[in-house]
Amino acid sequence: MKHNISIIIIVLCFVTGITGCSFLEEQVPQGILSDEQVKDPQYVDNLVISAYAIYMSAEDINSSFSMWNFDVRSDDAYKGGNGTSDGDVFHQLEVQQGVLTTNWNISDMWQRLYNCLSRVNTAIALLNQVDDTYKLKQVRLGEMYFLRAYGHFLLKRLYKNIPFVVDENLTTEQYNNLSNTQYTNDKGWQLIIDDLTKAFNNLPEIQPEVGRANKAAAAAFLTKVYLYKAYHQDDPATHEVTSISADDLKQVIYYSDPQWYGNYGLENDYHNNFRPEPQYENGIESIWAIQYSKNDGTKFGNMNWGYGLCVPNIPGVTDGGCDFYKPSQNLVNAFRTDNNGLPFLEDFNKKDYSIAEDYADPRLFLTVGIPGCPYEFLPSMIMARTSTWSRSNGLYGYYVSLKHNVDPYSEYIIKGSWWGNSQNRIVLRYADVLLERAEAFAQLGQEGEAIALVNQLRERAKKSGEQGIIANYPSTYGVKFNVGLYNQTYGKEQTLQIVKMERRIEMGMESERFFDLVRWGEAETVLNTYYAEEVNDCSIYSGARFPKNKGEYLPLPFSQIAASNGHYTQNIGGW
User: Fold this and answer.
1) How far apart are CA 71 and CA 331, in angstroms?
2) Does pLDDT of 457 surpass 70?
3) CA distance 388 to 402
4) Measured between alpha carbons, how far is 206 from 216 in angstroms, rounded to an integer?
5) Following DSSP, what letter does each residue of 354-414 receive, concatenated?
6) Which of 423, 401, 402, 400 is nearest to 412 (CA)?
7) How far is the CA of 356 from the CAs of 120, 219, 470, in angstroms?
8) Tens digits of per-residue pLDDT, 2-14?
9) Tell me, what's the pLDDT at 9?
């Protein structure tokens, strides 16, 4: 899009950790800026900060860029809330029934993310006009290419066929004539990769300010996008995986190579990734995170309101908590382990997990609040199967997400219209890179390398149970931890099973699951099995049926189709 950069641009600078962040309107006189003034590096950098900031300021409790709202389609979580009519449009997505192209949640995320892209492109257009004597010009361009890739990535995972705004100098007429089917699925991923490659080439290994993307962040993002691209879905009549590209998988191996991650590794305690204390945020495992804060001079701080609906409704403590995004019984069962401490790859859901009877991976108690155990690790708040822990009186069960919440008595929480907390949201985590690398190795027939990476995560999980914040759970609450390593030789298919199960356990409730199932081409099989098995634990699934070659992606919003003058084509599936 082409923008008039001569008018004053009021920038909402909400990115904490980036110094010198203030309102542009306070730095320059009100009115019109000259072309020379607006090209001044200080004004350009405010636009860059603004492009980061919108990934917080444009976020909403109902439209979280973490995508938890849309992960309710997976087998990891129930929608939650007070009942099926509470957030009914997300209930429709959860059971894949009655989804309409006019539903507000279909269009809202589209609009928010394209607003993000507009701000990024504004910054890129102006950066390209700044004199090359501005020493940070190429670095800032790299950051903006990274953020442009991020916006397109989020959109593509949701809608598949999207218009790409990768030319920051489009005229209004050109913008209005963009097509959402100009590029094949494969080419669409390549456009995102092209931006990330420019980011990778421009970004330094270390940024002096937290929150800015660096070379490792670009490498981690390239790892992820190449893995998505590897699973080709280019038949315009289906969403099925038609082939898996070895060349793309080799790029996954290249960009996940340890050479790019010298400053990163695994936390000793898994839980450290999900703590709000300053000494834990931006830790060794956090490659790139959205930065939130509380005490930064603003009324409510730059809090994460995107998780505001995930807070349980605890009387006298979190009154007004909405209790959304509740872990499923199916997810809890996936953490069960056998006598050797290994997951049940085939029959994990044949028996519901029992604290008294079953071994479990310690990551269960760092991901899911379990009745009989403390909420947010507070001995004074033992969870139970009561309405305190389920606004729906058990319709959505009694489990609660731990990763999205913090100690409700801590200084890191605030209540505005909804609850917010200042805990960073890690977008790119080193464990995720290891899992993606393991998946690529498995697909390429290098099973030993894949298993070795999985075992790194399992060793950390074992250490977390023995030495971390939940080390007393066996003696105090009667849980039984058991984490073993894979120490045999495994074929390709079994190795893939192992990697996929490890990914589910390690990344549980981080909103990756539904997109993983679509990427693998397994959504229909896995989710229809889930509906059939889970109906005994959550009756909402009695009429659920996943529609193959439709439910994998959201439809394009009706309003966008109507306004496109015939340039947009609706996704397949009979919307």
Assistant:
1) 13
2) yes
3) 16
4) 9
5) -TTT-EE-TTHHHHEE-TTSEETTEEEEE--SSGGG-TTTTTT-S-EESTT---TTSTTEE
6) 423
7) 52, 44, 17
8) 333 222 233 333 3
9) 32
